[in-house]
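This section describes the prediction task in plain terms. A model, or a person checking by hand, is given the sequence of a single protein chain and must write out its three-dimensional structure as a string of tokens. No templates, partner chains or ligands are provided. The sample shown here is typical of the held-out split.
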Amino acid sequence: MELLTPVRLGRFALKNRIVMAPMQRARNDAERVPTALMAQYYVQRVSMGLLISEATSVSPLSVGRPGAAAIFRPEQAEGWRHIADAVHKAGGLMFQQLYHLGRKSDPSRMPPGQLPVAPSAIAPKGQVAGLNGPVEFATPRALEIDEIRGIVAQFRDAAARALDAGMDGIELHGANAYLVMQFLSDGTNRRTDRYGGSIENRTRLLVEIVEAVAGVCGLDRLGVRLSPHSRGDGIVDSDPAALYLHVAETLRALGIAYIHVIESAKADTPQSPPPGVRHLAADMRRAFGGPVIVNGGYTLESGNAAIASGTADLVSFAALVIANPDLPERFRRAAPLNPPDRATFYDGGAKGYIDYPALAES
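The expected answer:
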């Protein structure tokens, strides 16, 4: 069974190819400090080859739903230290995923008078949570060119905090229509300076963040997550194949440990190719030349097939890992899977978070 075989990822030898996808479960406290409940949640899932933390904000200008994760304050980093220590004591391996919401940040939860920032002043489609209920996304403020250095520094400093807290590595979130992807996509990046226009220019912010973070953690424990077909909030690129093959080639030249590609195995989802656009994961793996994690509604069968066919080296699972903390053992035994309770995915307490039974309990 391909998913249960060992694999090397950067400096690490993984016991299997099953990855816990980064999933925002919104169980941090009101100050976005991780809780003891979260440590229990991650420890329950240490049988995965790699745990990737929920997306963790690097900036006070990058805040969304209540309870979402952050690491721009010392007390937040200290909370993550307790999680890293517990995971390691249980024999697990964990990377911290870092992100900046960019134009998708919630102004009602940002410092007074501040607007979300983005490559260009183009509002996303849809709604943000808001303090008093859902409201339309705000039109962001376009970053001045001299502010971009500060964004890069926020990622570098957040990575340093995560590593000091004991995390094994860093995943940079360049997917799901957040700030890095906003710079990559020509539908959201209308800049005319060196961060806009050509594919090379639009890739510049990602490159600068990778180089800065690699200076802290080393290239062999650094990955990047990408979603070439994301379009849930109106983000779009005119030529995703050209863009993401260039990104994969660029990351190959930089020498990072892996890329993590979201590309739905199902049709007609916000992460599947639109009509007339081909699947890109296999091409991106060839362009990158190193380990690739794929994500997107995979099952035991389709995950094994993705590895066997050369589309990927590892597969990350989201809902299946939420509902089945012992997923590798269930795969090994071809055992029944717990169904996920989607109503508890994004808020609440222990219910739907740490109470899914393992096989022994079943």
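For orientation: Residues 148-164 form the longest helix (17 residues).
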